[in-house]
Amino acid sequence: MSKKAIGIDIGGTNFRMGLVSEDGSVEYFYKASSREICDNGEAVELLADKIELYIQEHGMQGQLSAIGIGFPSPIDAARKVVYNCPNLQNSTGGFDGRNVVHSLQQRLGIPTFINKDACNLLWYEIEMHKWKGSGITIGFYYGTGIGNSVYLGNGFLDGKHGVACDVGHIPFYLSDRYCTCGNRGCAECYASGRVLRDIWQEHWPEEEFTDIFRNHSDSKVIQEYLEGMAIPMATEINIFDPDRIVVGGGVMDMKDFPEKMFWDYVYEFTRKPFPGTDFAIVHASKEPGVGVAGSALYAFEQLRLKGKN
């Protein structure tokens, strides 16, 4: 009998949850505003309430192998504590500094595994394409912020404190903009979905936001935005010389996104002759449950690894 896990994908804007099988298929997909697990209470308890209600509604009591969760935040090296989610704040600090694993396992009695959301998104692609042990894979997800992860052969690059590959917070030179994280000049000050909405509200608020690329890709402000998107990606390409790049996220998926212009900027900044343009470009799967499936598949993988020890 196939094992089942709950997969949860928490973004800066949306919260998604589903029941996932070991092959990555998703049932009972649920989507809501992320504010539902931040407003009006302690964030971890609100999240536990959501999971508990979901289990009860679908009759899953005693049938789950694990819970996997992706957060839009760096996670500590032990993969238990959420460091900070600047897009999910509330009066009690949101998820910042919370040992989510301990709290959820204590309340729900189900093995729980958390990870950075971009890692879970990329893990889904690695599992589906069978890339384990096959070179270097980089994931870039342009959404509310910039999600990023690097997979080296057989594992993610996590770093000493678990916070590696957070290129949305690399600094831009001589910047006077401040990021939601508190630092000055982060890439997300120039290339996030949040910034794109600011551009729209400043320049073309009378138009539909979804038409911004169709109507204004040739404008100076959008060209600068695309360059801002390209710089952190080209920087990481030059560092890792990857085999492939997985790209996705709400910005990349917008109507008439000027993809050729974007890649022209990336190629302008990559080192010549190599890496140059010598890497595969793979568009991330667009199904709404990909982050949910990736979170659950990550949980299954952690269960397998623990079983070997």
TrEMBL record:
<dbReference type="GO" id="GO:0008787">
    <property type="term" value="F:D-allose kinase activity"/>
</dbReference>
<keyword id="KW-0418">Kinase</keyword>
<keyword id="KW-0808">Transferase</keyword>
<comment type="similarity">
    <text>Belongs to the ROK (NagC/XylR) family.</text>
</comment>
<dbReference type="InterPro" id="IPR000600">
    <property type="entry name" value="ROK"/>
</dbReference>
<dbReference type="Pfam" id="PF00480">
    <property type="entry name" value="ROK"/>
</dbReference>
<protein>
    <submittedName>
        <fullName>Allose kinase</fullName>
        <ecNumber>2.7.1.55</ecNumber>
    </submittedName>
</protein>
<dbReference type="InterPro" id="IPR043129">
    <property type="entry name" value="ATPase_NBD"/>
</dbReference>
